[in-house]
NitT/TauT family transport system ATP-binding protein
Amino acid sequence: MAEPIIRAQQVEKYYAQPSENRIQVISPTDLSIQTGEIVALLGPSGSGKSTLLRMLAGLSRPSGGEVYWHGAPIETAKINVSIVFQSFALFPWLTVMENVEAPLKARGMAATERRERSEKILDTVGLDGFEAAFPKELSGGMRQRVGFARALVVEPEVLFMDEPFSALDVLTAENLRSELLELWQKKTIPTQAIFLVTHNIEEAVLLADRIIVLGRNPGHVRTDFRVATLAHPRDRKAPAFTQIVDYIYKVLTRPDVMPDMPKLKAGRPVRDQRQMRYEMLPHARPGGIAGLLELAIDFGGRTDIYRLADELAFEIDDLLPIVDAAQLLGFLRVEEGDVVITPTGREFAESEILRQKELFREAALEHVLLLRQISRALRSKSDRTVPEEFFLDMLDEQFSDEETQRQLETAINWGRYAELFDYDASRRRFTLPEEEETAKSVVEEGGAE
Ligand SMILES: Nc1ncnc2c1ncn2[C@@H]1O[C@H](COP(=O)(O)OP(=O)(O)OP(=O)(O)O)[C@@H](O)[C@H]1O
């Protein structure tokens, strides 16, 4: 196979923390961008999509490994890429024309040529007549057209896009997407490859020739496959389309399991490089989990996650932590892109509050290592109290400072609800209320670590 335009070999990224720990955001990863392909990168929030994009675009140096541009190390190569951002990132004090000319000016192009090239690309993206307007006079969709024009005017070999349609309303996004695809397919633009970071699964399946899904903590490739069997324009209702959407949902909702690829041509094997002691607690509240389970019962005990998100008008990223949490606690299963309530989940949703707490307590102790450890530690101390710092130290070996705090907050929230312990915020200590006999007996029955 020909050398890809961009090839990342075992790239990883660490960020320094105020404490001496370095946090690994991307674990060693191989990835390439070939001529002629649109690659979409999906993954939950914080999985390192933007970090990876920045390394592939030569904007950020990997902490380990190497990125190659046509086979040469990217930092010494003469690269030709541009990036479209979600936030448009226009210069507000410049007109549309001046914004588009800016990158050519930076490259030292003469004024006449610059103007000619900019006029042409403004025409191509439908901004004819808006040359003298300022960004604030334009709608979001028109501003992003300026973003595209500015990126395309340099005739980039690779066009990077970081959530380019997320800030736009649905119709505008749809419109811009199909226009971009048309420019690409008709080769109106000389761009050789497109790399798109997105949250939107359908968008990825609509546009991409290849889809990569990242898992997090640290970021790693969970699946990387071709969508070559679907011809453009793609039909959202076609069975092959929905199969791929479902498969990606499953990959995103089951961080611990690798679902089977739908039987499409040329699916590539999958890697999962995670190694961790603590499972990542999804940041969901017990009330939210109960609410989700009640809804699942209303839908007959089984429903499509996609439909559920739609019904609730939830972004999938807001719904996933609740689904993940219910799943982690054994209240839900995800099967074929559907959420299916388990018998314990049903009992939990239908019980009165005391029984709910009891079921939550049993599930939390069975499935959540951190809560089990806090409970055990408290019971082994004669004064029935342990400083939070003790657990922070263990967590921050695995999570960033910010995530460590969030993990602890979620654990406190769940533990309090389950009446496993109290938390004294002024002293930053966990404490055990004297009368916690029920919890005590459950802990003593708890399984081995
Ligand atoms: N400069 C930085 N210093 C420290 N940590 C950082 C820095 N940039 C990103 N991170 C952390 O790296 C992780 C990955 O961030 P990144 O923005 O790449 O993820 P993402 O998948 O693009 O997320 P989102 O979908 O929310 O945009 C996050 O936990 C983030 O907090």
Residues 15, 25, 43, 45-51, 400 surround adenosine-5'-triphosphate (CB under 6 Å). The longest strand covers residues 22-33. The chain has three domains: 6-253, 286-349, 368-445.
